[in-house]
Amino acid sequence: MALENAEMIEKLKDNIYTVFVGSARVVDLSICCLLAGGHILFEDVPGVGKTTLALALSHSINCSFGRVSFSPDTLPSDITGLSIYNQASKQFEFKPGPVMNNIFLADEINRTPPKTQSALLEVMQEKSVTADGAVYPIEGIFMVIATQNPIEFAGTYPLPEAQLDRFMMKLSIGYPSKEDELKLADMFMSGRRAGELQNICSAADIEELQKKAQEVKVSDKVLGYIYNIIAATRKEKRYVTGASPRAMLALIRAVQAHALMDGRDWAKPDDVKALYVPVLLHRLILSVEARMAQEDPETLLRGLVSRVEVPV
Q1: How many domains, the chain?
Q2: What is the pLDDT of residues 174-207, one digit of tens each?
Q3: Under 8 Å CB-to-CB from 311, ≥6 apart: which residues?
Q4: What is the pLDDT confidence band of residue 48, given thresholds at 50, 70 and 90?
Q5: At what angle do helices 203-214 and 2-17 cross, to 10 degrees?
């Protein structure tokens, strides 16, 4: 059974690599986030392949897909849907928005004001949309993949802390190496596109892998290690607030998925070490004093974790 899991995951990776060129770690973490049942935020400069990777992951799975390219005039109803009056039945009927799909791509999410961004809060947490007093659940798997440019870029709005906390991971793709960029040029000239990818697996296959990930054993020692890391961020005065309980639960789920991808049904501290940065870093807000001192957020987090005792 473990071999079947590994084969499916490898096929998923290979399919993504047919159109995406870049960090293998980012691809692995993206799949890990999917298997953990989380949402993912890609932040980087324009043109490095954020949307391509998101589309490649989406189109590798035979499931429903929705997309919105966010802009300053995007409305909440453009995302969640709205009720329209049907003259024939003389009743209002709810027309689902693009978020009511198994995978939803929120492209350039920080180019829309916080009011519209908040339309995703309920669906990312509850996997449902409330409209006109009625609740509309999303069946099967559900994942929000969002892309954004750094907040220093023109025309961007910072995501609220509550919104950031709902993303399991935040990843940066970075510029490709010389070899990768030349390979990208070859792909471009051959006309390969993410939208033309074949489905490697079904939504039911991914749902089954998610269930297997949840069955991965996390010992009391590993749980204690995770908690101690979370507690260390709460005691650090250079953070405005520490990691939330949601962050701890997200790290546990990610650790379970990471172990499954490694062919294990048990988690170990190395899984935690591989994941605490992408899971926690975007949730931790530096204090004014730390920003004035030009503290590096990742260096600070790694320094904190290095002082937490690792269980044997």
Answers
A1: 2
A2: 888 888 888 888 888 887 777 778 899 999 999 9
A3: 221, 222, 224, 225, 269
A4: confident
A5: 130
Residues 144 and 13 in one domain: yes
Q: What tens digit of pLDDT does each residue of 144-166 get? A: 999 998 766 667 888 888 899 99
**First CA to last CA across the chain, in angstroms?**
28
Domain final residue, candidates 208, 226, 252? 208
How far from 108 is each of 59, 113, 133, 261, CA to CA, in Å? 19, 12, 30, 29
DSSP-assigned letter for residue 189: H
- For residue 108, the Cα-to-chain-centroid distance in whole angstroms is 14
Distance CA 114, CA 131 (A): 19
3-state helix, strand, coil in the chain (%, to 5): 50, 15, 35
Cα–Cα dist 138/126, whole Å: 9
- Phi then psi for residue 197, to 5 deg, are -65, 145
Per-residue confidence (pLDDT) for residue 151, from 0 to 100: 66
C-alpha torsion angle, residues 286, 287, 292, 295 (rounded to 10): -40
CATH number reported for the structural domain that contains residue 228 in this entry: 1.10.8.80
Query: Angle 204-124-14 (CA atoms, 0-180°, nearest 5)?
Result: 45
Instruction: Tell me the residue range of the domain where 298 lies.
Output: 215-306
